[in-house]
Amino acid sequence: MTQPPWRRERREHFPGVPAWSLATSRLAPEEFGVSRLEDVTREWAWGGDGAGGDGTGVDGTGDGVAGRADGAGVRVCVLDTGVDGGHPRVGGLERSLVVADGEDLTVVDCDPVDPVGHGTACAGVIRSIAPAVSLTSVRVLTDGRSGSGAALLAGLRWAVEEGFDLVNLSLSTTRSRYLPELHELADRAYFRRCLLVASAHNMPVVSFPWTFSSVISVASHDEPDPMTYYYNPAPPAEFLARGVRVPVAWRRGREIRSTGNSFAAPHITGICALILSRHRWMTPFQLKSVLYLAASNVVVSKGGAHVRA
Amino acid sequence: MSVHERHSDSEITERRLLQSTVEVARHVFDSAAASVFLVDQETGDLVFEAVSGEGEQHLVGTRFPAGTGIAGWVAASGQPMIADEVAAVPQFAHDAAESTGYVPHSIMAAPVIRQESCIGVLEVLDRSATWRGDLADVDLLAMLAAQAAYGLDLLLRLRRAETTLPTAPGGDDVHVLLQRISDRVPRGGGAADPTALKLLAVAEELLH
């Protein structure tokens, strides 16, 4: 099978994607996976979990209900404080890396440790939703010092080049000097079929990348079901997922209950992994559409969706 | 500690703004304590700048190393968060918490952001169980953090101004100052800096 367009080498002497190259008069469009999306339900998307909100979602047991997607074959990168690979809620890592100190900011392998606990919490949430997913950690936040935006960029660039299906970003930067490069990187990820899931920032400040339209941005709802999520018709936060009193993994094999959009984003990352493991052909555009159609407040019934216009 | 023992009059005003923010935070959340940390821009350390409630007598000026516990994560990521049931976690930044003399059950923390960088953290320990809703709590904390940002920013500006303008000994005595200036002027009509001459002329006018 030929490489899909988003994985092909970029042409050295003719960068960019000119629109006129897409003319179909001499060349038929190549084949691609398709759904008219009329039949998209939660059942179609990942095998279903009931109507949502009935508490039937998996709860970290990892046993996977028969017929339900489990995230197998999907590769997720967690850009955070590192992940404790030995934590029972994390269930092992494919790889653990860190953005090394120094001027060139290379990404190098490291021990699967997490000095803070936050990355471990996010990885554990993803695993609880998609038990068979492959998790990789890149540590981009190493200490409390500000100015780690350069490490974030280096880690994200690595993850996009590496071809991960999903990147979880439970963090944001307020520094505008990183804006152009981060924006370009988010767009490149989108076209390379690497979907960035970013937690929304509920502070009265400007920050990114969650405000970019090429990523999926996630804020919190306060219901306890991990599979209940809502489409938010008033972006920039596009989806609302569980983010209040979430039982999460923490340092040294412990657990705490945490609240914050940081923990809502990995719920959506996990749900995206379920959808992708069932429908490998999806582009970020299609995945976002399916996520919308399968949202708890977009249930199709009696011929119309239940979202107020 | 030295910087905290030497309060100029104006610094007291700046500090009162921060203190009033933590007082408000402590009361709206009916919590055991509320505090503002400053992030030391050189070391990344977190320094207590204002405390209301538990520890308010002795904590101001205390430092924690970069990346310590919840406050450290919040400073690094810029994301507010709440952690509950932390007391059930023996190692959970326990050393740091114990050194303050108070080990909380729950911590809420939000970044204090000014001019694109996180300059501090607002933290509330053991908010009451009265039902406001956790999402409402996070939003309210974020608003108070925005207020703390102005207070901390003022305090930082004041300190910067103080360090860049060190007062020379006897600098407030005009005769001592004039003597020092005259010592520096080259004898025998040598070329003095024209800008300095202009400034002296202006100073003479002002002294009239």
From TrEMBL, chain A:
Residues 71-297 form the Peptidase S8/S53 domain. Coiled coil: none annotated. The active site is at 80 (charge relay system), 118 (charge relay system), 262 (charge relay system). The keyword RNA-binding does not apply. Keywords: Hydrolase, Protease, Serine protease. InterPro entries: Peptidase_S8/S53_dom, Peptidase_S8/S53_dom_sf, Peptidase_S8_Asp-AS, Peptidase_S8_subtilisin-like, Peptidase_S8_subtilisin-rel. Residues 45-64 are annotated as: Disordered. PROSITE patterns: SUBTILASE, SUBTILASE_ASP. It holds the Pfam family Peptidase_S8. Residues 47-64 have a biased composition (Gly residues). Signal peptide: none annotated. The keyword Hydrolase applies. SUPFAM superfamilies: Subtilisin-like. Transmembrane segments: none annotated. GO terms for biological process: proteolysis. GO terms for molecular function: serine-type endopeptidase activity. Belongs to the peptidase S8 family. This is Subtilase family protein. It comes from Microbispora rosea.
UniProtKB/TrEMBL annotation, chain B:
SMART domains: GAF. Residues 13-162 form the GAF domain. Pfam families: GAF (PF01590). Gene3D superfamilies: 3.30.450.40. SUPFAM superfamilies: GAF domain-like. This is GAF domain-containing protein. It comes from Microbispora rosea. The lineage of its organism: Bacteria, Bacillati, Actinomycetota, Actinomycetes, Streptosporangiales.
